[in-house]
Write a structure and sequence with these properties.
By secondary structure, the chain is α/β, with parallel strands linked by helices. It has a single domain (2-252), classed as Metallo-dependent phosphatases (Purple Acid Phosphatase, chain A, domain 2, 4-Layer Sandwich), CATH 3.60.21.10. It has helices at 13-25, 44-51, 61-68, 75-90, 94-105, 139-147, 229-237, 244-252; strands at residues 2-6, 30-33, 56-57, 110-113, 116-119, 152-155, 162-165, 169-171, 180-182, 189-192, 206-212, 219-225. Strands 3-2-1-11-12-9 form a six-stranded mixed sheet. A six-stranded mixed sheet has the order 4-5-6-10-7-8, with no helix packed on it. A hairpin with a 2-residue loop joins strand 4 and strand 5 (116-119). Helix 7 runs antiparallel to helix 8. The longest helix has 16 residues, at 75-90.
C-alpha cells in the first residue's frame, strides 16, 4: 500500500490542496500527518478540516503551543499562534469550531506501524527536538536518537527533507536515485519528509513523501509540488497579525 506522509502545513491551504491532489494521483490510499497543521499561515481552520481525512494526525510544536502556551516561541511565531488560537474559536459556526477543536484534542504524540515510527520532531523529544543535517557531527546525539528507532522513523519539524543513516550521514533527496530511498531491512534511517507549507531548503515547492510498503520493495519517494504560492503570501500580507516576513519565507524557500 502507498501512504502519503505530510508535515508542517502551517496554515498554507493552497499547498495542502496541491499535495493532496498529487498524492491521490500517485495512488496513495492513506495519509499520515506529522503535525504543525497550524502556525505562521492564514488558513489554519481550513487546513484542520482537510487533515480530518488522515489516518493519523500527530502533535507538532505549534499545536502544543496553541493548546498549552507559546512562551518559548519567538515574537513572530507567538503572535501568529495567538492569532490562530482566537481565529479557530470564532471562524465558522459552533459545529465547525467544535469539529476543529476535536482534531486538536485528539492529536497523538507518536504513531507506530510495524517497524515504522512516526513523530513530529524526533523519537527522543517528539514535538520539539531539532535534528539538523549538521547533527551528523554530533555523535552522542545521533546515537541516542537511533537507539530509539526500531527500523525507520519519519519526522518533520526542521522543514529540510532528507535521510539520516546510523553511520552518521545525511543525504538530500536530490542526491538519491530518482529522489527515492530504498529501504534496507538491515539499515536504520531517520527520514525527514520536509514541509508542505513552509519549505526551508531553498526549494519553494511543497514537500512530502510517499511510503510504498510493498514487501520486498519498500521505498520512500520524495515529492515536490508546485502550488499558488502568491495566494498564501498575499493572504499573510493582508493579515495584520501575521508578519510579512512569513510571506517572504515562502517566496524564497528559507
Amino acid at each position: 500500500m502507498i501512504q502519503g506522509l505530510i508535515s508542517d502545513i502551517h496554515g498554507n491551504l493552497a499547498a495542502l490542496k496541491a499535495v493532496i491532489a498529487d498524492m491521490e494521483n500517485s495512488g496513495a490510499k492513506r495519509i499520515i500527518c506529522l503535525g504543525d497543521v497550524v502556525g505562521y499561515g492564514p488558513f489554519p481552520g481550513e487546513c484542520l478540516d482537510l487533515v480530518q481525512r488522515c489516518g493519523a494526525v500527530l502533535m507538532g510544536n505549534h499545536e502544543e503551543a496553541l493548546l498549552y502556551g507559546a512562551d518559548n516561541f519567538n515574537p513572530r511565531a507567538r503572535r501568529a499562534i495567538d492569532w490562530t488560537r482566537e481565529h479557530i474559536k470564532h471562524d465558522g459556526g459552533p459545529e465547525v469550531v467544535a469539529r476543529r477543536e476535536a482534531v486538536l484534542k485528539n492529536l497523538k504524540i507518536q504513531a507506530k506501524t510495524g517497524n515504522f515510527l512516526f513523530a513530529h520532531a524526533s523519537p527522543r523529544q517528539p514535538t520539539r527536538e531539532y535534528v539538523m543535517p549538521r547533527d551528523v557531527r554530533n555523535v552522542g546525539k545521533m546515537q541516542e536518537i537511533f537507539s530509539l528507532i526500531p527500523h525507520i522513523c519519519f519526522v518533520g519539524h526542521t522543514h529540510v527533507p532528507g535521510v539520516f543513516l546510523e553511520d552518521l550521514t545525511f543525504t538530500r533527496p536530490g542526491e538519491l536515485f530518482a529522489n527515492t530511498y530504498f529501504i534496507d531491512q538491515g539499515e536504520k534511517a531517520l527520514i525527514n519528509i520536509g514541509s508542505v507549507g513552509q519549505p526551508r531548503d531553498g526549494d519553494i515547492r511543497a514537500s512530502y513523501v510517499l511510503l510504498d510498503d510493498e514487501p520486498g520493495n519498500q521505498r520512500v519517494i520524495f515529492r515536490r509540488v508546485e502550488y499558488d504560492l502568491e495566494e498564501t503570501a498575499r493572504a499573510i500580507e493582508a493579515n495584520s497579525m501575521l508578519d510579512n516576513h512569513l510571506a517572504e519565507r515562502l517566496r524564497h524557500g528559507r
